[in-house]
Amino acid sequence: MLRIIPFFTTEAQLIAALKRGENRAHKLVYERFSGKMLAVCTRYCTNRDDAEEVMLDGFMRVFEKIGQFREDGSFEGWIRRIMVTESLMFLRRNKQLRQEVALDDMLIEPDYDWADATLNENDLLGLIGQLPEGYRSIFNLYAIESYTHAEIAELLGISEGTSKSQLSRARALLQASLKKLEQQQHNERTYQKTAS
Questions:
Q1: What is the rounded distance in angstroms from the CA atom of residue 171 to the CA atom of residue 4?
Q2: Is the Cβ–Cβ distance between 8 and 31 less than 8 Å?
Q3: In 10-144, which residue ranges form alpha helices assigned H by DSSP?
Q4: CATH architecture of the domain covering 9-96
């Protein structure tokens, strides 16, 4: 007996199949969005295993809550918000969300022209990944996900002022990391020239 596999030609058909609980639709959504959503989770949970766990929990939440999706917005954006929320819940459960560090040497201003010419996306993501969990979460929410400080405060159960100060500290740490990377690369270039 020949079995016909349904083909979802539109996102609306795919969403309707999800709402009916069709496993093939679940599989297709996972295959289509898992790479992007793992990247989202990895920005919050730097440990790859934790990020994968959060992503899987996020997809379970997507499938459980699909009935709440209003089709007037972006489906991918809706999934992304669920992944961000799951990441934050994971960090909160593991008490990693509110770490703070001292900002002793943060007045050093990096050379942004050098950074523009030298840094690639992976370098920048690596620097963001080195931030403490709380700073990284707020930086990601504000700078990458475009949440407002009011939305961040509500999501994390903090004040808007705390959100703003954590973002400021995250930026200062990124600037210090950028300056340090710049100095390391300058030293390497100098060494290579003198060794030649």
A1: 53
A2: no
A3: 11-19, 23-44, 48-65, 75-93, 112-118, 121-129, 133-139
A4: Orthogonal Bundle (1.10)
55-to-30, 167, 189 alpha-carbon distances in Å: 10, 25, 40
- In sequence order, what are the residues at sequence separation of 6 or more whose Cβ sits closer than 8 angstroms to the Cβ of residue 136? 43, 44, 46, 128, 129, 170
For residue range 157-185, what is the model confidence (pLDDT) as tens digits? 889 999 999 999 999 998 888 888 778 77
Q: pLDDT tens digits for 64-86?
A: 999 999 888 899 999 999 999 99
- HSE-CB of 194 using CA atoms within 13 angstroms: 6
Q: Is the pTM of this model over 0.70?
A: no
In 3D space, the residue among 28, 104, 89 whose CA is nearest the CA of residue 53 turns out to be: 89
| Residue found under tokens 């030609």 | 9
**Which CATH code is given to the segment(s) 99-196?**
1.10.10.10
* Boundaries of every domain in the chain: 9-96, 99-196
